[in-house]
Structure prediction request, 640 residues.
Amino acid sequence: MDLVTIVLAVTATAGLYMAWNIGANDVANAMGTSVGSGALTLRSALVVAAIFEFGGALLVGGSVTQTISGGIVGVETLAEGGDSMLVAVGMTCCLLAAALWLHVATYFGWPVSTTHSIVGSVLGFGLWAGGVHVVRWGVMGSIAASWILSPALGGFLGFVVFSMIRARILRADDAVVALQRLGPILVFPIGMTLTLAMIFEGLQPLRMDLSLGTALPIAVCVGLLFSAISVAFFRSRRWRELEGSEADRAERVFRGLQVVTACYVAFAHGSNDVANAVGPMAAVFGAVQEGLTENVEVPLNVLMIGAFGIVLGLSTYGFRVMATIGREITELTPSRGFAAEFAAATTIVVASKLALPISTTHTVVGAVVGVGVARSFGALNLRVLRGIVASWLFTVPVTAALSATLLALASLALGQ
Amino acid sequence: MRIPLANLLAKSPFPRIVEQMAAASACAEMVPALVTALLAGDEAGVVRLAKETSILEGAADEVKNRVRTEMPLRIFLPVDRRDVLRLVSVIDRIADSAEDVGVLLTLRHLEVPEGLAAPLGSFTEAVMDTVATASRLVEQLDGLVRASFGGDAAEDALGLVQRLGEREHAADKLQDQCAKVLFGAEDQLAPVALFMWTKVLNEIGDIANHAENVGDQFRLFVAR
Prediction:
């Protein structure tokens, strides 16, 4: 068995393991609000996640994957320099380092981000393998900025959306009527954003590379179509027949809507997080096949391995995490959950289109805090935020050091 | 499991505060029985009831301590954390005053001057009214949180606060009447007895004051 085969095998295993880890821990954070409010049972959540994570990963996941595989570190420079094996082994070490750190964090219960771990490892690999010059610091800077901006944007959107919902729907004299008017408007951005994400410079499997001018009108039309279909939902007679106050009725309607936002956030999550498992894998495969360029197109089967791993992680372990979350956040009523999921998903999809790898978990937390700032929960535990900020500071240096160390060891072992 | 979302929503202190009010209310509701026993001259009964009231006050204290323990510094509430803590203190004072009434009545044999029985009964009833209204107000907390301390729920709460103020005022007037009867009989009463009676009336009146302060806190909660 030659070295290449070993490296490929280890990479595939490590990548699959990373994907499994993402499915086991991260998906629950994204979709937990829908389960907690009772909008989805665990089983339906699994089905939704399986379909939409897969879809998001395949249809929109390529951009972020490219960033991780070739955007942060100039791998083609390294490969041209003679050593594509270095890239292959290096990226494998990245996967291993990130996986190791996640294991430690899971053991101690730290809210560490899979995205930060992988980006940190890749950074470490680049610095060790090629020095400061091979790292694209512009890209690194944008990524670091996006890590601060994405929870902030999620929070801002969550606050705005929930404030609007509360003012115009929850406090309306007739909430059901208010929903008939405003519901389709709330639903429109979901349809439009998803469509735009898929068809604007996307849809790799179908090679549909539409420009903004063509994509935007189509997305708007699909969004309107979505709204039109939703009108029937909002006009349904069953809302009239519900008991309870106006606000209670509105919550029941939002519970139905949370199914839609669950799909939305699962798609968004798949589009951004599949790269954490698949990015290094794509670089390895590319290096091994001597096909490394700056914009190496991520092969479809690599994306599929990642997507499959995520779904596997979710169905074997993730449902337990979702059950835990579902128990703990019952205070997150459907209207709050809708606002938070909508805000988080929109932020994540935008980041995916901008090819920026962000932490989906931190974005969801940001969105929930944003909704909470609008005085919508009994109490928020801000100590969790402290843990998150701490993990920001530690993750990148630690994973960078880890991956560099592993690569150094591997080089020694291979006599390079 | 590194799942921040599971820990993000902290335990809300509001249900526990509702529990605390229920305990304080139970303690305060011993006062009419104490007054009845006193008016009937049942000294042994007064001692027994005073002891029971103390036990109930201890229970209310325990709930109060739990509220405070469950509200760590880093909790983010939809209302000012200090206002919530003040509400907890005020509710606690209701139970404290009720206990003090019981203790006062056991310190010294209190002869009841003529004509005081009826106004004292009315006064005690009015004070209990304020406690009951405050109780109803505190029970609204859950609905208020869900309505983000605004809208209809807030309007209803403010209405209750208004009513609470009116009832406290009525209790004040009845306290004055009792005092007038008391001073009307000042020549027949020993000075110490007069002193003790004044203390007892003030202590019962304080229960109503604390109940009204509960309403004041709610005004702060629903303020924008």
Observations:
- DSSP finds 14 helices and one strand in chain A.
